[in-house]
Amino acid sequence: MLTAASSTIALAVPGLPNIKILATGGTIAGAGVSSTQYAGYQAAVTPVDKLLLAVPELGKIANVTGEQISQVASHNMSNEILLKLAKRINVLLASPEVDGVVITHGTNTLEESAYFLNLVVKSEKPVVMVGAMRPGTSMSADGPMNIFRSVITAGSKDSRGRGVMVVMNDQIIGARDLQKTDTMTVDTFKAPVFGYLGFVVDSKTHFYKPPARKHTHQTEFDISKVNVLPKVDIVMGYEDDSRAAVDAFVTAGAKGVVHAGSGTAAVSGQMQPGLEDAVKKGVAVVRAPRSSLGIITRNMEFDDDKFGTISGDTLSPPKARVLLMLGLTRTSDPKEIQRMFNEY
Ligand code: SIN
């Protein structure tokens, strides 16, 4: 459900950065029935005003105002909400009165939304995403400290020009590098292939590198006039798989398909004709690794040149889906889309 609300928790203090918090839901806005409930609680119930009042220390580090964009668990995050969020961020960051944006979000699909925003936000100002693994009602809830660290990062001049970042567990991770690695633990977010951008210690950011690939204002993607993103689906390769899922997605109107293959994005003998037929119908097919880690280059384990498929570089299947949706807003030429995968 889309909702809208606005709140201010402090009068503007001159000299402090002006940070906008956009809330979308997730466990960070979750509530359980007891302080020991870490599973089976309800995500996305606490409104942004209450979320911010739980961290009164924010008033000392920034002028913080909140806005409710949506109230969903992130596995219910839709393209519609993502577009609304991205457009709102671009409006806010165009204003000289906003120095940075923090987005609260569920952790389940955080890496997808983070990579999407990393490609479509048009500003050098800091954009920081944050979630929590424990609901606010739990013992040792991680949300309040994560929010505090996120606002520190969004207000830091050193954070400018680093693309969309995720701050959790004191670590700053680039949107493209981010991977959720565990279903329950608070240190679930890692950057297993490329490493962290930096850390937050007390009230200071420490950066060690810029993002490796083009991002935000450096990209060619403009969603200002996009209301619906092209439909892209993911099919999984596994022992004794079949072409049924890819056929069904194409019949349902998919403009793109990401094949999450085993090993170096291998394609089984029975899946191959399904992907070939999809390409012949004008559907863009990207190969990504189902392990989500490692590089897939062109013609690695599969003849991309012969079959007209696209190699996914180092993107996980969900992130490959995000880039393919955006690529398809500009072209359906597989060569051009391959260029984008090599570039972003
Ligand atoms: C969600 O992704 O919305 C629920 C789980 C979480 O935030 O950790």
Walk me through what this model shows.
It contains 11 helices and 15 strands. With 344 residues, the chain is α/β, with parallel strands linked by helices. The protein has 2 domains: 201 residues, 3-Layer(aba) Sandwich (Rossmann fold); 112 residues, Rossmann fold, CATH 3.40.50. The strands form 3 sheets. It has a 9-stranded mixed β-sheet with strand order 1-3-2-4-5-6-7-10-11. It has a 4-stranded parallel β-sheet with strand order 12-13-14-15, sandwiched between helices. It has a two-stranded antiparallel sheet with strand order 8-9. Helix 4 runs parallel beside helix 10 and helix 10 crosses helix 11. The longest helix has 15 residues. The two termini are 31 Å apart. The N terminus is likely disordered.
Sum up the structure in keywords.
single chain, 344 residues, alpha/beta, Rossmann fold, 2 domains, nine-stranded mixed β-sheet, four-stranded parallel β-sheet, 28% helix, globular, binds succinic acid
CATH class term of the largest domain: Alpha Beta
Helix content: 25-40%
What portion of residues belong to β-strands? Answer: 15-25%
**So what's the overall shape?**
globular
Stated plainly, the CATH topology of the largest domain is called Rossmann fold
Structural class per helix/strand content? alpha/beta
